[in-house]
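Collaboration report, partner site 2.

Our partner group contributed sequences for two proteins of shared interest, and the home lab folded both. The records are reproduced in the order in which they were received, starting with the first partner submission.
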Amino acid sequence: MDITPDKFVKLVVDSYDKGKGVFKNKVNAEDLIPKNTTDFQKSLFLFYTTQLDYATKSQKLYQGAKLLFQTDKNFFDPFFIQQVNENTLKTTIQKHFKPRYINEAVRRFKLNSNMLIDNYEGNPLKLFKNAKTAQEAIKSIRKFRGFGPKIGNFYFRTMVNTFNFKYPDIEDVLPPVDVHDVRIAFLMGYVKSQEMTQANIKTVKNLWNQACIKAKRNWLTFDKALWLLGSEGKPKTKVDVINLLV
């Protein structure tokens, strides 16, 4: 049975909202924020953790980050990170976040802390509150080291979902696309290849963007659901994809 992209979006989002199939266990970044914390603390947790959400298994990353947050919140404080000894920072990041590229992780923490202090008084919430549009927020996010089209848009999604920021052009922002998004688009027959080429990634971004608009479903929710569908469900066929939604 052929399912158009917009109908697929409706099916995925509706299943996610109802907690059906693979969505019974929700482990997105937004679901892994430490409990009993202030909005400011939540924003710092997301700022530091999402920038390392690459080349590592996401759930392990957030579990380690939560443990560090519980034991020493200083490592989520830009003013502390700006001053802390680089070797101490390196050891702590390695132990709790376990990034594949530790030197790059340390560089991001240092440089991004400096920029956060210089531009937003060390408060990530101010970046989003100062922005009049989603595109303005994205442009500001992209200035931070490592916050490119994938991580930057992913960070945007986590912050908007968590704090319910409202922008008039929210649907104009293209969703972040990773291997799971591309593979599912391929399994559903919407693209001819599951290769992670720039051209294919761009095609999939536009595919999901237009499908969400046509389906009148929020891409912020669809993106969360699609990641779970791919990473937790690990479908190998189109039939697998559909069965994971019921």
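Second partner submission, folded after the first:
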Amino acid sequence: MQLTPVHSAGGFTGAMMPLVGFVIIAPDLMFDSTRFVRLHDQIMRKVMRAVLYLHHEKTLPKHFQAGADKKYGYQKRREKYLQIKMNSVRHNVDLVRKGKTRASMLNRVPPVQISGKGSHILTGRMRYRFPFPVSHDAKDPRYVTMAKMGKEIGSWTIDEQKEAVEKFAELYTADLKFELASRPRWRKEMEKLGGS
């Protein structure tokens, strides 16, 4: 699954989480409890934020390295453009010319926008912006437009998606156990049913 960031004036809003689904096993009395549902939502939001920050720190830099074009499926650049770029900056790393975009996106942690409810559908986005005015995209499909570059920056490999899902589950489980430690009645009910 490849995520498609939404292009906007001056940048793009990266939809940086793969679609994630979880089965939470808990006693009915807990799901009937507004206190538990509220706790569940709080943990989901906290974990979503943490996984997005991890993505920014560990995965996003890989998009600006040599070889990222093959790893993430970037659109092939035209030979004429590659030659001009090589002559002017002495490299052909996609998404990098002088490094202004890379530095702007990696050196500043963007705000995280979370919407929805953990008990239904929760979405998380990190809002990145190109550090220069963005003109209208060319209609010629041979050209790599700003919208296409935004899509490239926001793409995930299958392995990165799996790692994010595993990290999400790991952090959620750890946080829930920590919270239940101060709620012995709920913890006992979960232990009876073989939960955490």
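Feedback sent to the partner group on the second submission included the following. The longest helix spans residues 34-59. The two ends are 31 Å apart (CA to CA).
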